[in-house]
Design brief:
Length: 267
């Protein structure tokens, strides 16, 4: 008997997942992922660690992890310790001087809507929620540079705008790293919940004073090409985890690209 076809994904912002229909039920989705990690035993940040992690990711490319287009991947990403030199430099380019103590400020990468109007709405939502939490001082937004030409058509159709935020700890939070991390967690969750309630495309890849996450609906080698930040010489880390998502009976999406936000207390 001929099986009913699954309707094409409906793009909503940067996500695309069909609803349950016919023989398809998103509750049955599975994937099989490839991961790799490299670290300096002393925790010393270096360019070598980042480049080695990206090489590991490229070596995972033999597994496939592609859809109907050679240049559209199921998802790839890197989670690493915040590259202190790099982040301080790009913040200074925006006339922001970060605190000397690298645990008293945080950085986050956020997927936002494909329209500038949606981006402005997302920024306002995030800043409003930040103001509600005592001890968090919002500093600045930075548009993360990307090279969209390396994306296949399917990935381009639902490509988000990537914004980077910087936040400083003040008062009691500046004196208590654990409370600062907890406040960042609350901000991320509240902003995401408010955005979801308002049907606004918004996904915080990471928000931390320890780690940062670059990911997307990319091929393994496409991650480095898509994010020029990862090519900068002062983008250094003492530890890096890479991931390639192999969708078997699932639909790829930008927010599903992994790596997930790792619990900061274990970093």
């Amino acid at each position: 008997m001929e099986q009913p076809a699954v309707a094409a994904p409906q793009f909503r912002g940067f996500d695309a997942t069909p609803k349950a229909q016919g023989l398809y039920d998103p509750a049955h989705e599975k994937d099989s992922c490839g991961v790799g990690m490299i670290a300096d035993i002393g925790g010393t940040p270096s360019r070598y660690i980042v480049e080695s992690a990206l090489q590991i990711l490229e070596n995972l490319d033999h597994r496939g992890a592609r859809g109907c287009e050679q240049d559209t991947g199921d998802g790839a990403g890197i989670l690493c310790a915040i590259p202190d030199k790099f982040m301080r430099r790009v913040a200074e380019e925006l006339d922001v001087k970060l605190p000397a103590d690298n645990r008293k400020w945080a950085v986050g990468n956020v997927f936002m809507d494909q329209s500038e109007e949606g981006v402005e709405a997302g920024k306002k939502l995030f800043e409003d929620e930040c103001k509600k939490i005592s001890g968090l001082k919002f500093l600045v937004w930075r548009r993360v540079p990307v090279y969209s030409d390396c994306l296949g058509k399917s990935a381009r159709n639902c490509e988000p705008i990537v914004e980077q935020c910087f936040i400083e700890a003040e008062g009691a939070l500046a004196a208590d790293t654990a409370r600062f991390e907890a406040a960042l967690f609350v901000l991320r969750k509240k902003a995401g919940n408010v955005a979801a309630a308002g049907d606004l495309p918004f996904y915080c890849c990471s928000l931390s004073n320890r780690v940062v996450n670059y990911k997307g609906m990319l091929t393994c080698p496409g991650l480095l090409r898509y994010y020029p930040d990862l090519q900068e010489e002062d983008f250094e880390s003492g530890v890096a985890l890479v991931h390639s998502r192999f969708s078997t009976n699932t639909f790829p999406a930008w927010r599903r690209a992994h790596p997930f936000r790792r619990s900061e207390e274990h970093t």
